[in-house]
Each structure stands twice: as C-alpha cells, then as structure tokens.
Amino acid sequence: MNNLNQDFTTLEYLARGTERQRSAYETLSKLKIMDVLHGYDPILVGTIPIHIDLPDSDLDIICEVHDFNGFKQWMVSEFGDLQDFRCVTRTVDGIRRIVANFRFQGWPIEIFGQPVPTKEQNGYRHMLIEHRILTILGDEGLSAIRELKSRGLKTEPAFAKLLKLEGDAYARLLEMVHWKEAEWIDFTEAWMGPKRAFPN
C-alpha cells in the first residue's frame, strides 16, 4: 500500500496516486504553487499525501517564513484574487505564524508559514509518523483511521484512539519521531500479531 521511503518534498507521487491525489496534483500544478513558493521550501502535508482525506479536506502547504510582511504581500499578489482569499498572522506558543487560505478548482487550500525549517515543523513530522504507522497497519488500519475521522475526530486524535495512546495526541505522536528501529520493530510485531483488533 504505502512506500515507506516515499519522498513528500515534491508533488510527483500525487500524479500516480488516487483519483483525489491526481486531482490535487492537477490543481496545484495549474497554480504552479510550488514554483511560486520555491523560496520558502514548501511541502504539501496533511491527509491528502497519505490518503486519509475526507471530502472536505484541504490542501495544506507548509513554508519556512521569516519576513512575514514580505510573505503576506507575496500571497496577496499571487493569490489575492482567488475565491475566499484571506491571510492572517498570529502567535501560538510563542512562535509567530502566517496562514493564507483560498479556494481553487473546488479545492480549499491553506498555506502555512512559520520561522522553522519545513522538515522540522510539526505538520511534516506528524505526517511522516502517520505514514509509517499506516505502512505497518496496512489497508485495514487506513480504513479504521478514515472511519474515525468521518465521525469527527481530527487526524492526530484518530491515530491516538486507534493506537490507544493516552494523553495529548499531538505530543504522543511526536514522541515517535525519536523512536529507534528496535522500537518500530516491537510496534510492528505487536500490531501484526494475532491479537490485533481495530476499534469499531
């Protein structure tokens, strides 16, 4: 199902993916969005790359941004005429962020920027962990996550429920970034064993 070594830093994998992924590829390519954002090290993250999106899921692109005024002006000049465009800045947990939203070809698109390298941002790290988990759990696990999300759970809480992780779902998943290979082997063996059961 999933390629453990999938390169998410380009969009080419979308062109070979599901119908929704191919649609996303066409939309983002028509916007030339990765070229527009090239100087900000953009990466598409979220649910669409790992095939756990719902019909209303958006296309989330993260960027490394330090000049917020310049970035906002760039967003307005490139996307300001598109449907439902808005761009706001705020500070969360002491880190400034900027978010631009708009719609194009029926897709809701969100561009997120903060002064952190994109591969170190939580959105990217969460996606890599979730991708690895889904690679281990297979199609049954993917279906279980999609079902939990269809009931209203956000992505990380859905994974936490499936894996029976206690505490803050976002923090618990980020802990897995630091797992050594032996811990992943233990996790895999536990879930591939005969007692594996997915919640209803």
Explain what the structure shows.
This protein is an alpha+beta fold and 200 residues long. It has 2 domains: 12-116, Beta Polymerase, domain 2; 124-192, no CATH class. 45% of the residues lie in helices and 18% in strands. It has a 5-stranded mixed β-sheet, sandwiched between helices. Helix 5 packs across helix 6 (155-163) and helix 6 (155-163) packs across helix 7 (169-175). The radius of gyration is 18 Å and the shape is globular. Residues 194-200 have low confidence and may be disordered.
- The CATH architecture of the largest domain is 2-Layer Sandwich
Overall 3D form: globular
Span of the ends, CA to CA? 22 Å
Q: Rg to the nearest angstrom?
A: 18 Å
Spans of at least 5 consecutive residues with low confidence: 194-200
Our count of helices gives 8
In what order do the strands lie side by side in the largest sheet?
Answer: 1-2-5-4-3
Main pleated sheet: 5 strands, mixed
Order of helices and strands: HHHEEHEEEHHHH
CATH superfamily of the largest domain: Beta Polymerase, domain 2
The CATH topology of the largest domain is Beta Polymerase, domain 2
Assign the structural class, choosing from mainly alpha, mainly beta, alpha/beta, alpha+beta, or little secondary structure: alpha+beta
Structural domains: how many = 2
**Residue share in β-strands:** 15-25%
**What's the overall average pLDDT, rounded?**
91
CATH C-level category of the largest domain: Alpha Beta
Tally the beta strands.
5
